[in-house]
Amino acid sequence: MLKSAREVFMDYLRERDMNLTPQRALIVEAFLAEEGHFTSEQLYIKARKADPSIGQATVYRTLKLLVDSGLAETFDIGEGVALYEHGYGHAHHDHLICTKCGRKVEIVDEVIERRQEDLAEEQGFTLTRHRMLLFGTCPQCLEGKES
Amino acid sequence: MLKSAREVFMDYLRERDMNLTPQRALIVEAFLAEEGHFTSEQLYIKARKADPSIGQATVYRTLKLLVDSGLAETFDIGEGVALYEHGYGHAHHDHLICTKCGRKVEIVDEVIERRQEDLAEEQGFTLTRHRMLLFGTCPQCLEGKES
DNA sequence: TTAATTGCAAATCGTTTGCTGAAAG
DNA sequence: CTTTCAGCAAACGATTTGCAATTAA
Question: What's domain A5-86's architecture?
Fold first, then answer.
């Protein structure tokens, strides 16, 4: 049985003699409750609802811990802000992004995943992670534009 | 026959009543002479060799024109700086990046390209561009580490 | 002479960091 | 007591922008 996300984080903290402070606990809960992709700012706003005295730096620092512990993944779609999402106990997926409305659809494809491994191997690389972003126009925005 | 990169840029400027100033010409030449990936800063340093009075803002502004005209492509590998590379008359490719030494290998794969199109279509999206980054450890860095 | 363009410096903006006091073991 | 943390504000670093002076058509 897989460890729960909270266990993973606790173990991570314990290993490096760090504490689960109320602030960290609160930010992690806000993080776990979050769906989809979000920015540090968005998590900050959410965390502040639970405790208005939370500082933005603490959110940044905790997000770094979450990424480092494997609970979160971060990526950049070139908009000047880092995006975060769950990364533990979630099947890997890539993103299809509408450049008109910003909608992001998660996609998975076995064929691509396998080819990526093969390509890396052909070059003698050991693959640790990858990021695939497909940019286009979503059905809704296409409709609006065609008229 | 395909238009040359310089022609593309000239046409682009003409269409919007912009001029090919000495600074722009110089930056474009530096850009065209560049191989592989580079940052705005790197292009700035190179351009300054041809004309030390060039301003960094002009390089940023011209790079934007280059991207907009289709001559350049830009992407972000999450290091806080935008990377640029040629995007006209060059077959599309993706990147395999060594997270130890930063080496970047260009890769192309028909199978993946096709699947990407299919995936987008399945969701009703019209694909305009995509970005695939594979992160791992290159053969050289693997050797060093194994010992 | 009129609009486009430059270089400079100041402004932005997301993110990081130094510092001081508070809290945890 | 000793170390870890939080919050704040200042620092940062890449990129953008306002502006006055310069250049191109």
Answer: Orthogonal Bundle (1.10)
What whole-number distance in Å separates Cα of residue A2 and Cα of residue A26? 23
Which residue is closest to D7 in terms of CA–C1' distance? Answer: A55
Supply B103's token pair. 């080496």
Fold (CATH) for B94-142: Dna Ligase; domain 1 (3.30.1490)
The residue to which tokens 């390089």 are assigned: B59
pLDDT band for position A91 (50/70/90)?
Answer: confident
Backbone φ and ψ for A48, nearest 5 degrees, come out as: -65, -25
Beta-carbon separation of A112 and B107 below 8 A: no
Residues A62-87 pLDDT 10s: 999 999 999 999 999 988 899 999 99
Single pTM value for the model: 0.91
CB atoms closer than 10 angstroms to residue B82: 17
Per-residue pLDDT tens over the stretch A125-138:
999 999 999 999 99
Give the pLDDT band (50/70/90) at residue B55: very high
Put simply, the answer to whether A127 touches B136 (Cβ < 8 Å) is yes
Q: How is residue B64 written in tokens?
A: 């934007």
